[in-house]
Design goal:
Elements lengths: L5 E5 L13 H4 L1 H28 L4 H20 L22 E5 L13 H5 L1 H11 L2 E6 L8 E7 L2 H17 L4 H21 L61 E4 L18 H31 L8 E2 L3 E5 L3 E4 L2 E3 L4 H8 L1 E8 L4 E7 H7 L5 E7 L9 E6 L16 E5 L2 E7 L3 E9 L6 E9 L4 H30 L13 E4 L2
Parallel strand pairs: 8-12
Antiparallel strand pairs: 1-2, 3-4, 5-18, 6-17, 7-17, 8-16, 9-16, 10-15, 10-17, 11-14, 11-16, 12-13
Length: about 525
């Protein structure tokens, strides 16, 4: 079997506490919080690596080490918690390899990566694997609903049960709860699914050009990973070695302390030289300062991208100004066989009225009749209620102004009779417009409780109108400028901090070992 550059190994750390898995979600919260920050940095650094590979064919080594550390950390937390529940040992807070932890992940650093492949492998070539991994790691119960905001209905997401892997881990957890034993077959299968997912994650995040195999390699050992010379199944993984085996028969692991004695018949053999063209092991010192710089810089870059996206959206909105400087919604048709359409009450009150008036500017309501001349007016809520108290009308409870929905409007019918007088004869309107065809009602925002009323001008039944709402939004130009300035500042500082963190991490620390581990052979 050809070696694969990604090695995912784990061992079932029995005995397991029968009930600890019930609270591991709480115990893992500190890791989840840290990982949320680390994955923001992971995403930003992967984008940087994308362009580095595209222009140079190389994955920057400090970024590779950081991203590998994030994947290791994620794998350890998943193994401890509900990705496998394979150990009760609390995961270490480290980006390093942590070789003594029951779950390990190693990825060979690629000397060169394809410049062309980087453009398509993470989205196009990985699609078949995304489908498989989606089956393994996610699943949801969904229902089709016709009462969602989209009048055509839609999918309602109701439950995520973790896919096949989550289901098997739940079954294993229940068995552990009652028997104290983790079924070995379930463990092997869960590890195979996690191994597949991690291989795809490494490939999709550009850390290797080796296409993940369509094969479920079950079990704690990684049969597709590179074996050490003379390594048997179940032997100590490569990353657990710290140096040569002394002549006395003891082998040293990464970290303090020695391992148990080997039988006297075993001794060490000098390690083979590095393969031609391979890179010697390098270990970058991710100090607390370097990590803090990367995290803060990534958060600033992430925030800058967010403000940039909002700024672009605001600029597009600003470019859509129509006559008179109004920015308007799409047209929505509303109608009723009764005598009036009335909006729900909207309240304008508090200390923010002045700010709202400055931000929104002048409000315009455009109504276009489909037959009879229309009347549209804005009135104090209590005055509108008094006028329509005994009149049959519909209260509009939802008006989406969504293009292409075919009338996304919902109503509540209020029974009654015909109005005693026409709407134009009333004196309480704060703003009004009436007549055939298109009518424009403009209004400056004022504090109070208000309602919008649309009727036929002669107060007859069967009202229908095409409605648009617009506003001048006088502060939008300044908002766009401010957002773009904030974006530039955030990106500049953010990328500066990321570069600083990478430079700090590029200081090479003393290697954990000077060469490959020795080969342990039997001498007698």
């Amino acid at each position: 079997m050809n070696a694969y550059p990604i090695r995912v190994r784990a061992r079932l750390d029995e005995p397991l506490n029968r009930g600890l898995w019930l609270v591991k979600w709480l115990l893992a919260v500190p890791h989840y919080l840290v990982l949320a920050l680390l994955w923001i940095a992971f995403t930003v650094l992967t984008v940087i690596a994308f362009f580095a590979i595209l222009f140079t064919g190389r994955y920057p080594r400090p970024i590779f080490e950081f991203n590998l550390g994030v994947l290791r950390w994620t794998w350890r937390v998943a193994y401890y918690s509900y990705g496998a529940l394979g150990t009760d040992r609390y995961p270490p807070f480290t980006l390093g390899p942590a070789p003594h932890y029951p779950a390990t992940l190693e990825i060979d650093y690629p000397a060169r990566l394809s410049r062309g492949l980087v453009l398509i492998k993470w989205w196009l070539l990985a699609i078949p694997h995304y489908l498989v991994v989606g089956l393994f790691t996610s699943g949801s119960a969904v229902t089709w609903r016709g009462d969602l905001p989209d009048a055509t209905g839609g999918l309602l997401y109701t439950l995520d049960w973790g896919g096949l892997s989550g289901l098997l881990v739940l079954i294993a957890a229940l068995i552990v709860l009652f028997t104290g034993r983790y079924p070995r077959g379930v463990f092997d299968f869960v590890l195979g699914m996690n191994r597949w997912a991690l291989r795809v994650a490494a490939y999709a995040t550009l850390m290797t050009d080796a296409y993940p195999p369509f094969r479920l390699d079950a079990g704690g050992d990684d049969p597709a990973g590179r074996r050490l010379p003379g390594e048997e199944a179940g032997a100590v993984p490569e990353e657990e070695w710290a140096g040569a085996v002394p002549a006395g028969g003891q082998r040293q692991y990464a970290g303090a302390g020695a391992s148990p004695d080997l039988p006297p018949a075993y001794s060490s053999v000098p390690p083979p030289p590095h393969a031609s063209g391979s890179l010697p092991p390098q270990h970058h010192g991710w100090s607390a300062g370097a990590i803090a710089s990367i995290l803060l810089g990534s958060l600033l870059v992430f925030s800058g991208l967010g403000t940039g996206a909002v700024g672009i959206g605001a600029a597009v909105l600003d470019s859509a100004r129509g006559p008179g400087g109004f920015i308007s919604t799409d047209t929505e048709r509303a109608g009723t066989p009764a005598y009036a359409l009335v909006s729900e009450e909207f309240e304008i009150a508090g200390q923010g009225v002045g700010f709202l008036r400055d931000a929104v500017g002048r409000l315009r309501i455009q109504v276009t009749g489909t037959g009879e001349p229309l009347f549209a007016g804005i009135a104090p809520q209590h005055e509108a209620e008094e006028y329509l108290g005994n009149v049959a009308h519909d209260r509009v409870t939802h008006l989406a102004f969504s293009p292409g929905t075919g009338g996304d409007v919902r109503y509540v019918h209020i029974p009654g009779g015909a109005p005693a007088s026409t709407p134009g004869a009333q004196k309480f309107w704060a703003a009004q417009a009436s007549g055939p065809g298109r009518q424009m009602l403009s209004w400056d925002i004022q504090p109070g409780d208000w309602a919008i009323v649309i009727m036929n001008a002669d107060a007859s039944a069967a009202v229908a109108a095409d409605i648009r709402v617009g506003a001048t939004l006088p502060g939008l130009d300044a908002l766009v400028l401010g957002l773009f300035i904030a974006t530039a500042v955030l990106l500049l500082i953010g990328f500066g901090l990321i570069v600083l963190g990478i430079r700090l991490a590029a200081v090479t620390s003393p290697p954990v070992r000077t060469g490959p581990p020795p080969v342990v052979t039997r001498t007698g």
